[in-house]
Write a structure and sequence with these properties.
single chain, about 450 residues, alpha/beta, Rossmann fold, Ribosomal Protein S5, domain 2, 3 domains, nine-stranded mixed sheet, four-stranded mixed sheet, about 30% helix, globular
Length: about 450
C-alpha cells in the first residue's frame, strides 16, 4: 500500500493550515501558535470512511423523503433539553466542552439512566476503566441494564463496535483520547481530533445514531481545534462556571436544530448535577438588604427571563489614574455608562475607582442591563440603597436616553413572580404595554437616565 506523507503547520488556536512555518497565523493573527503536523494519506482512511458512510449512494429527491415528525430523544433533564432545542436529534453529532472537573462526564452519565429505559447506549471511554465508570455510575444512581461500556482509544475499533452492537446512542469520552492509526500524530492533536470527529460524523449520519462527544479545553478556555470541530459537529455546548462553586451554566454556541440563546443552570452536589428550575431565585436569593451599590437586572436568555444582581462600588482612588474593573459585563460598556452618567446626569467619577460585578458568574451581554448597572454605580456613589423592591430595565443611549427593550411582558411576569413591587422601565415600553399583565407592580416609566437615578 502506497503511503504519501507530508508536513503542514496547523494553528492551535483556529486550526488553519499553512505549508510553511510562520510566526503569526495568517487567519486569526495569533503569534507562535503554528505547530508541525505530519499527515499521511492512504487508501485505508478512504476505506474506513466508506465503510460507515457507503460509497456511490444514489441521490434522493427531496420531495420523496417522508417526515413523520421531528424525532428527538428526551434526556430526562429539562435544562439540557432546552439548550438542545427540545432534545437530542436522531443522527446528530453533539460536542460538549468545558474545563476539567466541571461535570461533563457526570452530566452525560446521568442522562444514561433515563435514556436507558427505552434505548440501548454505548459509552466509550478512553480515560477511565470500566470499573472506574461503574463506581461513578453507582454514586450517581445509574443502574440501567441498557448501558454498555467500551474502553477503547482506536477510532476504527469504536466504529466496528458500533456496527456490531447497534446502539441507539453513543457517548465518546473524550475526543482528545481517540486515535486514528492512519494519521501520524499524537492523540489530542488537531489532525487526530479532526479525523476522528469526521469518522464519527459519517457514522452518525449514515446510521442515524446520535453521538455525544466530550471535548477538553486548552489553557485559553477553548476546545482544542475549536474552529475545526465547530464546522463538523451539529451542536456545540459549553459548560461554564468556577470549579470551586456549585453552580454550572450550560450554553449552546452552535445548534443546527435549535436556538443558541438558551441556557441551562445546574448545581453540583454529592449525588451529581441537579437542575435549577428557577435560576433567578438562586441568583438573587442572598442579596444583601438595604445595601448601597446593588441593583437587580432582568435579561433574556432565549425564551427565559433571568434576574441577576449587579453590584457597583465607587471608591476614592489612591493613584493618579482611577481604576476601572468589570466582571460579568463588557469593560468598554462600563466605561461608556460612566461617561454618560458624567455628561448627562452630572455625576463625577473622574478621580474615583469604579468596579462592577455580576453575582453568580453570569455575563450580561444584553443592552437591557445598562440601566441597572448605572443605578448600581450611582447608588454606591451617593451611598444610598436603590431599594430591595425595585428593579431597573432599559438600554442607555449616548444622549442619556432610555431606549425600549424586547419581551417586556415576559420580564415583568418574572419580576412579579419574585416579589418585586416597583419597576423602572423605558417610556416607550410603558406606552405599548398591556397594563393588566403588570398588576401588582408599580411601573415607573422614564425617558432619560437622569430621571431614573432620582428614584435612588
Amino acid at each position: 500500500m502506497q503511503v504519501k506523507t507530508k508536513s503542514v503547520y496547523v494553528c492551535t488556536a483556529c486550526g488553519f493550515e499553512v505549508p510553511k512555518w510562520q510566526g503569526k497565523c495568517p487567519n486569526c493573527g495569533e503569534w507562535n501558535t503554528l505547530e508541525e503536523q505530519t499527515v499521511q494519506k492512504s487508501a485505508s482512511k478512504t476505506k474506513a470512511i466508506s465503510q460507515v458512510s457507503g460509497r456511490g449512494e444514489t441521490p434522493v429527491n427531496i420531495n420523496s423523503i417522508e417526515i413523520t415528525g421531528e424525532e428527538r430523544c428526551l434526556t430526562g433533564l429539562s435544562e439540557l433539553d432546552r439548550v438542545l432545542g427540545g432534545g437530542i436529534v436522531k443522527g446528530s453529532l453533539v460536542l460538549l466542552g468545558g474545563d476539567p472537573g466541571i461535570g461533563k462526564s457526570t452530566l452525560l452519565l446521568q442522562i444514561c439512566e433515563y435514556i436507558g429505559q427505552t434505548m440501548k447506549i454505548l459509552y466509550v471511554s478512553g480515560e477511565e476503566s470500566a470499573r472506574q465508570i461503574k463506581l461513578r455510575a453507582s454514586r450517581l444512581g445509574v443502574h440501567t441494564s441498557n448501558l454498555f461500556l467500551s474502553c477503547q482509544t482506536d477510532a476504527e475499533t469504536v466504529i466496528d463496535t458500533i456496527t456490531t452492537t447497534g446502539p441507539d446512542l453513543v457517548v465518546i469520552d473524550s475526543i482528545q483520547t481517540m486515535n486514528f492509526a492512519q494519521v501520524n500524530s499524537s492523540p489530542g492533536s488537531i489532525a487526530q481530533v479532526r479525523e476522528c470527529t469526521q469518522l464519527f460524523l459519517h457514522c452518525a449520519k449514515s446510521r442515524e445514531i446520535p453521538i455525544l462527544i466530550i471535548g477538553h479545553v486548552n489553557k485559553d478556555g477553548a476546545i482544542a481545534g475549536p474552529k475545526v470541530l465547530e464546522h463538523i459537529v451539529d451542536a456545540v455546548l459549553y459548560f461554564e462556571g468556577d470549579r470551586n462553586l456549585s453552580y454550572r451554566i450550560l450554553r449552546a454556541v452552535k445548534n443546527r436544530f435549535g436556538s443558541t440563546n438558551e441556557i441551562g443552570v445546574f448545581e453540583m452536589k454529592a449525588e451529581g448535577l441537579m437542575q435549577v428550575d428557577n435560576p433567578s431565585e438562586m441568583l438573587i436569593g442572598a442579596r444583601p438588604e438595604n445595601a448601597s451599590g446593588t441593583c437587580v437586572a432582568c435579561m433574556m436568555e432565549g425564551s427565559r427571563p433571568i434576574l441577576a444582581e449587579v453590584q457597583g462600588l465607587v471608591a476614592k482612588s489612591g493613584f493618579g489614574t482611577p481604576r476601572r474593573m468589570a466582571a460579568g459585563i463588557d469593560y468598554n460598556r462600563m466605561a461608556l455608562l460612566i461617561a454618560v452618567l458624567e455628561k448627562r446626569a452630572g455625576f463625577f467619577f473622574g478621580s474615583l475607582d469604579a468596579y462592577v460585578n455580576v453575582v453568580g458568574g453570569l455575563k450580561l451581554d444584553e443592552p437591557s442591563s445598562d440601566l441597572s448597572i448605572a443605578m448600581a454605580l450611582v447608588s454606591s456613589l451617593k451611598d444610598k440603597p436603590v431599594g430591595d423592591d425595585l428593579i431597573a430595565i432599559g438600554e442607555v443611549g449616548l444622549a442619556g436616553e432610555i431606549r425600549a427593550v424586547s419581551h417586556m411582558e415576559k420580564r415583568l411576569a418574572e419580576v412579579k413572580k419574585l416579589g418585586f413591587q416597583r419597576c423602572i422601565l423605558p417610556y416607550q415600553n410603558y406606552k405599548g404595554l398591556n397594563k393588566v399583565l403588570a398588576e401588582g407592580i408599580q411601573l415607573l416609566p422614564v425617558k432619560t437616565v437622569k430621571e431614573a437615578v432620582k428614584f435612588i
